[in-house]
Amino acid sequence: MQAADKKDTFEEIFQQNERRIHFHIHKLKIRDPHHEFYQEGLCALWNAYENYKPDKGSMATYFNYVIRNRLIDMIRKQTREVELMERMSHQKMTELEDGNHVKKHDTSYPLFNMPEMNIADPRLWQQLKVQLTQNQWKWVLFHIIGDMPIKDIAIQENTTVEAVKSWGKQVRRKLRNSMYYEQLSWDL
Hints:
α5 (about 135-145) crosses α7 (about 160-175). The chain has helices at about 10-25, 35-50, 60-95, 120-130, 135-145, 150-155, 160-175, 180-185, and strands at about 100-105, 105-110. Strands 1-2 form a two-stranded antiparallel sheet. By secondary structure, the chain is mainly α. It folds into two domains: about 10-95, no CATH class; about 120-185, Arc Repressor Mutant, subunit A, CATH 1.10.10.
């Protein structure tokens, strides 16, 4: 190899050292169908050409060092990206397959996970539950107590939004009736 004089252009250096890039790709057992690693090696060769200082050592050794390390850095970067994608994919699959979801039309929706609620008077809610239908109670439980959106209730219960709204209308109608309060034994 010649010393990097200012007479030597990058084209000349490239023609003399292009095989180094291929050598390191082969030596590191890199599959490069899209020539990404070759391009990275080419950039490394350019940077080495620009930054080479003849008093620091042989140009060939410096080129080998820079090209090899840039290729290894690129392998590490791609490996980190693949590991990140695998972790994200695994996390998503865990969320979908943990058993706490409802599938509807090839889409998975999480089930409502109701935290422990502090209900002021459980007896009051129990009396109300006895007087309501199962669907009306679901509306009270999920929408009123659990603050769950109507659309999510419809998905969870595998019904329409209109049906859930209807449950709510029936509950409100019952609660507006003063005779209903007497049945519930509520003193409001």
